[in-house]
């Protein structure tokens, strides 16, 4: 135990001489040594203090040799503290009983009469064991809390708008399957968050989730990155290396920016998906893969396919189910929810007790078109909180331009009257932030008439 005093010890024995000897020896080496001759005091003593090691006599009744009392109090101790480290104090002839005690939950035993050095070594090891148990318990608790957060179906992205409720409903239905999913949406709408939600709610949730940004992979390195390579396959291939498909096998592979692939790369990807195996660059040995594929893009793949810029057969392969994320300007009613969500996150991060957003702040956010979508709102909220001088944010804390909204005119792609009416309804709804009553009044319609038109145009 060296010279540093370490650990709290509780010793229980009906022999006062034993207790005196233990106290005399251990007080030089541990920070606390409490002794007690009456085992009935154990619950009270354990309630009063936290002990790293408990030394427990096996027999308390005079002339008793069965050790039953020791087992009884061992069980009591472990009921109070399942992590307790208990060392039995036992006579030399009771080794068989001591082994039985270890099976019952004791950590080790100390033979009477003991050798001081061996006793100190045993207690030192027991203290380390207790500290390790505590660390493991703490890690498990943290992991449990983390899992509880991660297990929330859609904790990373939120929304009460009908558009987002439709997205959540689709995720719930699709996640439990192994169907390939294509996620569509503008930059900043949260496509990777959808992919992670699909993974977390799937049968593969305990396996790996591998995300690959195809837009950032050089075409010359495409095969090496995705399918792997063997040593010597090319100049810099100094060792064998698995590709992302191999690494993701058993779990989920998320291919972001799937629309950025050239036609030759599309062909190579399609071959792997059809055969469900990869061949590393420089090898001819096929390696089976088992992945759940999720892809995402902000590009119009169907239009690209019709223009022969994207392989139709690859498009069929990757979009068994399609999920389209709405732009933030299409779900204005979610802005307060999202803004205050980010406010709470960054208030904690930067240790600032910022109050919920005022009506003036929300109006400023409503009046912006959000080309960068939810990601832009997130960054805007973080910056405003970092720069805040007090607990209340002001509309001027949000660096956005609202000039566009005051100048915007309705532009028509056609002069078809139904299309014109649809565009006007969309504009008025947006101007009135989705308020049906206000929009109907501005359009000179009853609420019922407006609802009929909304249904007619699928708005």
Automatic annotation (TrEMBL):
SUPFAM superfamilies: CheY-like (SSF52172), Homeodomain-like (SSF46689), P-loop containing nucleoside triphosphate hydrolases (SSF52540). Residues 157-386 form the Sigma-54 factor interaction domain. It comes from the Bacteria. The modification 4-aspartylphosphate is found at residue 57. Coiled coil: none annotated. Keywords: ATP-binding, DNA-binding, Nucleotide-binding, Phosphoprotein, Transcription, Transcription regulation. InterPro entries: AAA+_ATPase, AAA_lid_NorR, CheY-like_superfamily, Homeodomain-like_sf, HTH_Fis, P-loop_NTPase, Sig_transdc_resp-reg_receiver, Sigma_54_int. Residues 8-127 form the Response regulatory domain. PANTHER family: ALGINATE BIOSYNTHESIS TRANSCRIPTIONAL REGULATORY PROTEIN ALGB, TRANSCRIPTIONAL REGULATORY PROTEIN. This is Sigma-54 dependent transcriptional regulator. It comes from Paralabilibaculum antarcticum.
